[in-house]
Design brief:
orotidine-5'-phosphate decarboxylase activity, two-stranded antiparallel ribbon, 8-stranded parallel β-barrel, alpha/beta, 310 residues, OMPdecase_AS, pyrimidine biosynthesis, Orotidine 5'-phosphate decarboxylase
């Protein structure tokens, strides 16, 4: 299944990390933004063009050392249809460079509406008998709290199209404990959702022991990461919250198995804004992002087993 391709990319690059492409205009150097403002004015068109050019530079600098990118839909939707077009172009460009794309949409609905979300982000859209990929991501983040009615349509498309998904289980934000840590029959809700991922994943088996139904588990909860790794042996983790939200290499170590597999750790702002943190010229933003990605890779490699597919 699709997450097998992600795991193979992790092994190929020896790097269990994903770069979150969550651009804001203040992250983009003037050398990129200003020419588009001059051409299109202070418009959504200028913003979207600058975002795509910025993303291209990041992808070019990262594609040989980072196996995947994770664009968050909201950062593109806020720039209207022009931004959504930049999202689609970013997905295509990253895939052309050999990267796995996790579309971070956190979609959640039932029936025909979830069918539409699954078709849009992972499948094909029928246009008078012609099937066309609208966005064509490799995996999609989904909210499973409507139950199987909101998951089954995605599983269907994943099976047909060799795609994967990551279900929200224990999210990185501080207030997640208000609901996700509440106990039902002495078991926290996040663990119940994790067990559902194991069950749903039986429909999408993978060749490396992990299914096509992954789980989102935050780097800010190291104890729960370790607990869930033990309880969910077939569920691959997407781990947000590294860096700017306070997660560290040590806090994510419990997400990995004895083969150095089991998780991919996301960093967004630390990579996107590395040029600002370093104080280097804007023209060097992509290489600064590469340097930060290498630092992150090395920090995590120091606390997990050597990565192997065996």
């Amino acid at each position: 299944m699709s997450l097998d391709r992600l795991i193979e990319g992790i092994a190929r690059t020896n790097n269990p990390t994903v770069a979150g492409l969550d651009p804001k205009l203040e992250y983009i150097p003037d050398c990129i933004l200003k020419p588009y403002i001059d051409q299109y004015g202070r418009t959504l068109e200028a913003a979207a063009e600058a975002i795509f050019t910025y993303n291209q530079g990041l992808i070019d600098a990262l594609c040989d050392i980072v196996p995947a990118v994770k664009p968050q839909c909201a950062y593109y939707e806020m720039y209207g249809w022009q931004g959504v077009r930049a999202l689609e172009r970013t997905i295509r460009y990253a895939q052309e460079k050999g990267m796995f794309v996790i579309t971070d949409g956190k979609r959640n609905d039932i029936g025909s509406t979830m069918d539409a979300y699954a078709a849009a982000h992972l499948g094909v859209t029928d246009v008078a008998g012609n099937g066309i990929e609208a966005f064509g991501g490799d995996a999609l983040t989904v909210n499973g709290y409507l139950g199987s009615d909101g998951i089954d349509p995605v599983i269907k498309v994943c099976r047909q199209r060799d795609k994967g998904m990551f279900v929200l289980v224990k999210t990185s934000n501080p207030s997640s404990e208000e609901l996700q840590d509440q106990a039902i029959n002495e078991e926290p809700v996040y663990l119940m959702m994790g067990r559902q991922c194991e069950k749903w994943g039986e429909q999408l088996p993978g060749k490396y022991g992990y299914t096509g139904v992954g789980a989102v588990v935050g780097a800010t909860w190291p104890q729960q990461l370790s607990e869930l790794r033990y309880e969910l042996p077939h569920t691959f983790f997407l781990v947000p919250g590294y860096g700017a939200q306070g997660g560290s290499a040590e806090s994510v170590a419990g997400a990995f198995d004895k083969r150095g597999l089991g998780a991919i750790v996301n960093s967004s702002r630390a990579i996107l804004c590395a040029w600002k943190k370093e104080g280097c010229p804007g023209e060097d933003y992509a290489q600064a992002a590469r340097r930060e990605a290498l630092r992150m890779r090395d920090a995590i490699a120091a606390v997990i087993p050597v990565i192997t597919l065996e």
